[in-house]
Amino acid sequence: MAEQGSNLIKLFGDREELLREGSFSEEEVAAVVAALYRDAINEINEIDEMASRGNEKKALARIRKLVERNEGYLADDAGLLQLSLGFNFEVPVFMRMYQDELKGRQVVNLPVPLDLMYTLEGNILQSLGRDDEALEVLQKARRMNPLSQLPFAPMNQIYMEKRDEEAWLRNIREEASSIYRDGVCEAFGELAFYLGLHKEYEKAHACVKYVLDRTLQQDVDDRYSDLYEFLDSHLEVEPADFGAVCREYGLPEGPDPKVIAVLQDVAHSSRMEEDWETAQETYELLAELTESAEYQEEAEAMAAKLDD
Length: 308
Known about the structure:
Elements: H1 2-12, H2 15-18, H3 26-52, H4 56-70, E1 80-83, H5 90-97, E2 106-109, H6 114-127, H7 131-144, H8 152-162, H9 165-176, H10 181-197, H11 201-213, H12 222-234, H13 242-249, H14 257-272, H15 276-290, H16 293-307
Parallel strand pairs: 1-2
């Protein structure tokens, strides 16, 4: 908890002011932030369940009240880069991934998951057919947490339905550089739909095959399995060369090598600092992205350090 608290302090505010004599300790600040974050997550889940039951208009009103209340944490200061990263490995990964852009800038991580609130609001707006409003809110979610994969799926769907192919393909390319395996797979699944609509069936087959080969059967999105069945059985097309498709459309061939390098750096640094939790989580990300047994062994070794 103390190590996590240190990360929170560095991003949540001025360390000296927070820890001055008579103020709060790192552990106390971390506990307050954790409580705020947990309470917000609980309310987000309740609103999501309300929307899933068909009470979308009530859910929209409630999520907007929650957003308005939590936007109060945003400071009116152009000199601040205000984010809504998860209080885990996302903090050091973001700082490493965007280190060049962050030089000379003050970064503040909000104590609430405002990115998740915006994403849920965008999802509800989309389900109500208010796509332009949904896109605006989902883009806010992307700005608040550039590492989150959650806004991509609804944005892809909206761009596809609008036939805004330039924005759709740009969104797919950005998602392909996700730090999460599910985000990478989703990007190639969306590229398969993009190619299918352009009757590039062999190329679409290669992309959707990549997704299904790397997704557990119980986790396969029905859209992707149905597309694969259509291409493989109904049209009986052979998949094109996957690497050639990636090069043609400007996507990495699988996980982005730049992302892998960042995660390796964070995992190594965390290990050297004996931040076993961050090291474990980052090695697990690497194992999922690369399907490497070596990274999984490292994650297990870090878990053992935590248990000691």
